[in-house]
């Protein structure tokens, strides 16, 4: 390992696995060696956990590299890439309820290429706590990255829930034209449509719950008109007999937001619904263009894009803050600024991308 190694303090701010995934992606793209210390030291089970181990192992299988510290519980890890991504189809094998979207989060930046369409097949969980659901990924994140020139299609072949997993998806990533486009998302418009998925232990009449959601959220529309499309997915889990969670998303003519709540333990639909509606209200009050979890997920791609991206968000999240720390370690020339707007606690985050030329 040489002296130009980039050192990342994994305990910075949020201190979660996302810092690790992002550092790994930037390391592969820019062929820069890095070492991360204090890995997940803010979490109750510090060090590399099973989920992170699977994500990193997958990348070390695809990218020829020199690696130190890749084991369960390890609090230090060093990585030296020896090559860039060679466009190829990727299959990520079954590991109970590993998060499919967090695997996509680690694979996506490195697998963008200009040469050929690739397919990414992943087994695991599609609706899990503390990470994006595959529904939010497909209907919110993917349309946004499409605007950045990254055409991606996600097919959910089978849903997977905690703790068994068993889900299966296939993502198809089309080649891009050299660079990603900048992203501008600064215009707030009121919502007019909702999509709701009730994740339940058994079927029930959901009409009354749909009415409650519409009644509580129609104050955030322009004219009181709010269409709801809802469905039930039956979750076969010994742990969740009543309600596993509720995935609620809202859409305006320009923007989409995710308010999903996946329960930690079995709860009634009524209790889960109150939590989801309160969460939605809190976010809708904010009048932003992105919900709190989509701000951090886009920043890495914005830092690679050509030109200045700007997004209207609420208070920058700790995930965002720690991600910016990682990006600036690899790309000190990438200027990232926060400008307070005169609405509530909103900010415009602007990112002067480095115009990374994909191969
Ligand atoms: N409830 C949620 N809904 C949607 N996205 C979420 C939610 N919670 C977290 N995320 C997103 O999922 C990612 C999780 O990153 P995080 O650093 O917390 O990593 P992790 O790999 O799950 O590890 P850890 O076990 O360290 O928390 C982030 O992009 C974050 O914005």
Automatic annotation (TrEMBL):
Domain of life: Eukaryota
Source taxonomy: Eukaryota, Sar, Alveolata, Ciliophora, Intramacronucleata
Pfam families, alphabetized: RTC
A molecular function GO annotation: RNA-3'-phosphate cyclase activity
InterPro entries linked to this entry: RNA3'_phos_cyclase_dom, RNA3'_term_phos_cyc
Domain spans labelled RNA 3'-terminal phosphate cyclase: 12-332
One GO cellular component, as annotated: nucleus
Biological process annotations from GO: RNA processing
Coiled coil: none
Name by which UniProt lists this protein: RNA 3'-terminal phosphate cyclase domain-containing protein
PANTHER family assigned: RNA 3' TERMINAL PHOSPHATE CYCLASE, RNA 3'-TERMINAL PHOSPHATE CYCLASE
């Amino acid at each position: 390992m040489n002296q130009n190694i980039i050192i990342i303090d994994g305990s910075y701010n949020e201190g979660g696995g996302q810092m690790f995934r992002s550092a790994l992606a930037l390391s592969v793209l820019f062929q820069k060696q890095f070492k991360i210390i204090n890995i997940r030291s803010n979490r109750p089970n510090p060090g590399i956990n099973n989920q992170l181990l699977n994500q990193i192992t997958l990348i070390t299988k695809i990218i020829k590299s020199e690696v130190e510290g890749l084991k369960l519980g390890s609090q230090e890890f060093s990585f030296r890439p020896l090559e860039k991504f060679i466009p190829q189809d990727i299959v990520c094998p079954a590991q109970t309820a590993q998060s499919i979207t967090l695997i996509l989060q680690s694979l996506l930046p490195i697998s963008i290429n200009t040469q050929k369409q690739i397919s990414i097949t992943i087994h695991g969980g599609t609706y899990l706590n503390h990470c994006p659901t595959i529904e939010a990924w497909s209907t919110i994140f993917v349309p946004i990255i499409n605007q950045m020139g990254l055409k991606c299609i996600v097919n959910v072949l089978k849903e997977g829930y905690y703790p068994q997993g068993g889900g299966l998806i296939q993502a198809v990533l089309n080649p891009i034209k050299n660079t990603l486009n900048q992203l501008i998302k600064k215009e707030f418009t009121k919502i007019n449509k909702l999509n709701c998925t009730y994740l339940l232990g058994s079927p029930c009449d959901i009409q009354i719950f749909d009415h409650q959601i519409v009644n509580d959220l129609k104050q955030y529309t322009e004219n009181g008109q709010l269409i709801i499309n809802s469905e039930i997915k039956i979750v076969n889990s010994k742990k969740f007999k009543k309600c596993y969670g509720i995935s609620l998303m809202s859409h305006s003519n320009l923007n989409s937001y995710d308010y999903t709540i996946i329960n930690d333990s079995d709860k009634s639909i009524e209790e889960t619904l109150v939590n989801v509606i309160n969460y939605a209200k809190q976010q809708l009050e904010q009048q932003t263009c992105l919900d709190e979890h989509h701000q951090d997920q886009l920043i890495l791609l914005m830092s690679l894009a050509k030109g200045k991206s700007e997004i209207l968000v609420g208070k920058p999240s700790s995930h965002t803050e720690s991600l910016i720390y990682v990006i600036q370690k690899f790309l000190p020339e990438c200027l990232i600024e926060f400008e307070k707007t005169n609405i509530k606690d909103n900010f415009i985050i602007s990112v002067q991308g480095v115009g990374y030329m994909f191969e």
